[in-house]
UniProtKB/TrEMBL annotation:
Belongs to the pseudouridine synthase RsuA family. Its EC number is 5.4.99.-. InterPro entries: PsdUridine_s_RsuA/RluB/E/F_cat (IPR042092), PsdUridine_synth_cat_dom_sf (IPR020103), PsdUridine_synth_RsuA/RluA (IPR006145), PsdUridine_synth_RsuA/RluB/E/F (IPR000748), PsdUridine_synth_RsuA/RluB_CS (IPR018496), RsuA_PseudoU_synthase (IPR050343), S4_RNA-bd (IPR002942), S4_RNA-bd_sf (IPR036986). GO terms for cellular component: cytosol. PROSITE patterns: PSI_RSU (PS01149), S4 (PS50889). It holds the Pfam family S4. Residues 6-69 form the RNA-binding S4 domain. This is Pseudouridine synthase. One of its GO terms (biological process) is enzyme-directed rRNA pseudouridine synthesis. The keyword Phosphoprotein does not apply.
Amino acid sequence: MNEEPERLQKKIANAGVTSRRKAEDLIRTGHVTVNGKVVTEMGVKVDSHDHVEVDGVPLTPERKVYYLFNKPRQVISAVSDNKGRKVVTDYFKDIPERIYPIGRLDYDTDGVLLLTDDGEFANLLMHPRYELEKTYVAKVKGIPDGAAIKTLQNGVELDKRKTAPAKVKVLSTDHAKKTAIVQITIHEGMNHQVKKMFAKVGSQVEKLKREQYGFLRVDNLASGKYRKLKPQEIAELRKLANGKHYR
């Protein structure tokens, strides 16, 4: 199936030649040809049938990469850390592409994390309007009662705004230790959101794992391991996050 037409500057940027803004400068100053003709106007769209050259060099589309990673605890969801702590990209030393995490997991939280070098795909998944459901399993100190569970389900006031309704299920309780294992599904991405939500109802998160992102799980991945996303998984993620907004 042929790709949909896209703006010329985006095509150049996606091929890894330069940023989109600099691609626009190259177009304006006559460095770009489409099917042998110099193009200097913005807004021109091209597709897979068009032959694009920058300074006489044909574009080679850059193939984007997408990974599912089982993030360990005590690892920063970033590409670098000024305190010298381990970061998620330390586990991808053999990957030539400059990848980065989509969103983040707290330093002491493990589980599903996606990494890519596709900025538009990452922005799509993180957009507040289209963000995917994320399911966590929390070990909490202070067993939440029915009223607390109802409060979590309806949303709690955090940082001067109410969280969206959540799915909450108590998986097990230990009344002797006054702890519980609770599954919670949210679709927002506020900083430390799950921990803050439980704190609001009098429970302290002692251990937290993100076990699912959309439909993706890390059941067969050991901690610190990763795999490439399958093409159908990438397509399904775009669809779940309302793929018509991708382009």
